[in-house]
């Protein structure tokens, strides 16, 4: 039988701001986005310095689409929409946009911009769309019409 060991309280707990759930930014999130927000908050590491809590791994928080899909059963498009919501409402920022095919993980930062959501002081950000043309499609390819069920080139 394994002996249970006490873990550091910081490893067993997740802290959220006391008024987070009362804000318009939070109340406008989808259930899936709230789930991902809590996962990001769970992954941050906090340290108490100079009478305040500081995120020590900010801009280095990693949550891959594959891992989020395994944890919560979300599709990649749902995860992308949730991350867009979290960025647009000021909960997270994308510190580095990774490329899955190159095994380069995206890194995220926890943001406090949500506290100003709905005011003139709110700094708007949007998740940047991927403009690279990845995959097999190319603009050089031409659409070939099909006549009588046979392909004519």
* Backbone CA Rg: 21 Å
Report mean pLDDT, rounded to a whole number.
84
Strand order in the largest sheet? 1-2
Q: Any idea what the shape is?
A: globular
CA-to-CA gap between the ends?
Answer: 71 Å
Query: Residue share in helices?
Result: 25-40%
> In terms of per-residue confidence, which ranges show pLDDT below 50 for 5 or more consecutive residues?
none
Main pleated-sheet profile: 2 strands, antiparallel
Ordered list of secondary-structure elements with their pairings:
Layout: H1 9-12, H2 24-27, H3 31-43, E1 46-49, E2 52-55, H4 65-72, H5 76-88, E3 92-96, E4 107-110, E5 146-147, E6 150-151
Antiparallel strand pairs: 1-2, 3-4, 5-6
Overall description:
The chain has 153 residues and is of the alpha+beta class. 27% of the residues lie in helices and 14% in strands. The chain has 5 helices and 6 strands. It has helices at residues 9-12, 24-27, 31-43, 65-72, 76-88; strands at residues 46-49, 52-55, 92-96, 107-110, 146-147, 150-151. The strands form 3 sheets. A two-stranded antiparallel sheet has the order 1-2. The protein has a two-stranded antiparallel sheet with strand order 3-4. A hairpin with a 2-residue loop joins strand 5 (146-147) and strand 6. Helix 3 (31-43) crosses helix 5 (76-88). It is globular. It starts with 8 loop residues before the first helix and ends with a strand.
């Amino acid at each position: 039988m394994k002996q249970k060991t006490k873990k550091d309280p910081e490893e067993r707990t997740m802290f959220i701001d006391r008024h987070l759930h009362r804000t318009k930014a939070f109340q406008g999130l989808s259930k899936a986005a709230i789930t991902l927000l809590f996962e990001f908050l769970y992954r941050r590491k906090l340290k108490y310095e100079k009478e305040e809590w500081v995120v020590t791994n900010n801009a280095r928080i990693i949550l891959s689409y594959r891992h989020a899909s395994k944890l919560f059963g979300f599709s990649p498009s749902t995860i992308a929409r949730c991350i867009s919501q979290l960025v647009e409402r000021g909960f997270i920022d994308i510190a580095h946009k990774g490329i899955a095919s190159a095994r380069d993980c995206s890194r995220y930062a926890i943001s406090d911009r949500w506290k100003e959501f709905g005011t003139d002081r709110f700094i708007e950000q949007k998740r940047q769309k991927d403009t690279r043309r990845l995959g097999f499609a190319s603009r050089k390819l031409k659409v070939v019409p099909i006549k009588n069920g046979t392909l004519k080139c």
